[in-house]
């Protein structure tokens, strides 16, 4: 085989390797996420409710981790929802709330204080400089006793100097990984930067997210245009997460999913505006350039008919966000391992 043929084959293989996972337009997504935080920070803060909710749920799960976490990487940190909710103490109402809820809020505040004391250095890593630095002067950050470092870098390329192997005791990633093209490789890279027996705790939107919007747009476009365009991003299913984490080198996995339903949208346009302000609008490479008005109006009526909720005589629209929570540990010789088959001392027949 001559040199030209070899060079052509090598170049072709490299091109295929670089593009085979490209589903999302990362450049467009960076613009989506940066526009509102840069132009209207206060509006951007108002639409942080999903990130804040998931950050609190992450803190609740971290409360069960008793080991030290001196150096933590917040991968795809957005504006720092994890840091914000870690530093803000929950208000406990004096009346109008069940005692069980009071105890839960007290425990959450204890968990926040405990976790703050464990983390000596928090590295916030995100591709959007505008979003990363949006709240840099907020008062809540002064409550955090450790060092906070904000780093701008591409989550997908994973080539920044702060992403060294065996560097972090824990990696947190909240609602960022669903925009990664090559998710298996990114998870493997996260595994590399962890110290042996290090903790990875991540969340991302799962496959049933916005199913109401998805089905309404599909039916409307099928009716008005006779076909379907990719209006909503493809998302990973919870059944695939275990395989992805195993392939990336993680062990002792814990995976669960939870639906967060946000209600009260007066129409489909209001929902799409919220998604746009959050930076969560469609960024699929094969997406259509615009949504025709007649399709949008038809989708709105279909949405109300199939999924609408009646409150005080008004029909409002709910939006379901399926959030997948995953925990994995970098493998280490010191980790507890399951006993070999046949070494059990108790017969299940005697118990059952």
From TrEMBL:
One GO CC term on file: mitochondrion
Q: Does the keyword Lyase apply?
A: no
Q: Which GO terms describe its biological process?
A: methylation; mitochondrial respiratory chain complex I assembly
- List the InterPro entries: Malonyl-ACP_OMT, SAM-dependent_MTases_sf
Instruction: Answer yes or no on keyword Kinase.
Output: no
Gene Ontology MF terms: methyltransferase activity
UniProt-listed PANTHER family: ARGININE-HYDROXYLASE NDUFAF5, MITOCHONDRIAL
What protein name applies here? Methyltransferase type 11 domain-containing protein
Species whose genome carries this gene: Spathaspora passalidarum (strain NRRL Y-27907 / 11-Y1)
